[in-house]
Amino acid sequence: xxxxxxxxxxxxxxxxxxxxxxxxxxxxxxxxxxxxxxxxxxxxxxxxxxxxxxxxxxxxxxxxxxxxxxxxxxxxxxxxxxxxxxxxxxxxxxxxxxxxxxxxxxxxxxxxxxxxxxxxxxxxxxxxxxxxxxxxxx
Length: 138
Known about the structure:
Elements: E1 7-12, H1 19-33, E2 39-42, H2 47-52, H3 57-69, E3 73-78, H4 85-97, E4 100-106, H5 113-116, E5 124-128, E6 136-137
Parallel strand pairs: 1-2, 1-3, 3-4, 4-5
Antiparallel strand pairs: 5-6
Helix pairs in contact: 3-4
């Protein structure tokens, strides 16, 4: 029997970060870290679509949740000690949907108390210092 293609949902914080930096890192995750024959959804890459369709923040969030429900793997990309409200809701949804959950986190945040309560929810954990290309599986 043919296995269905994996679909990854990339969750990230965008507020306060430069588009170029977050796009570089998320593109690296998509292109280098996981199989190229997979499908990906990332709201960062949908900005033009959202703007073209005059979508409100609530419309965007609803759209993203619908895309998350079509995914079987959830990636939480964390570079700041401040997880956004949307990331938290997406992570809760991933647990509810029983998606495989992968954490990609900056090394200095691994022991942060804010994230320690989530660590047990992750199936795989990767960390990196400043450069995403130096990522390591823990």
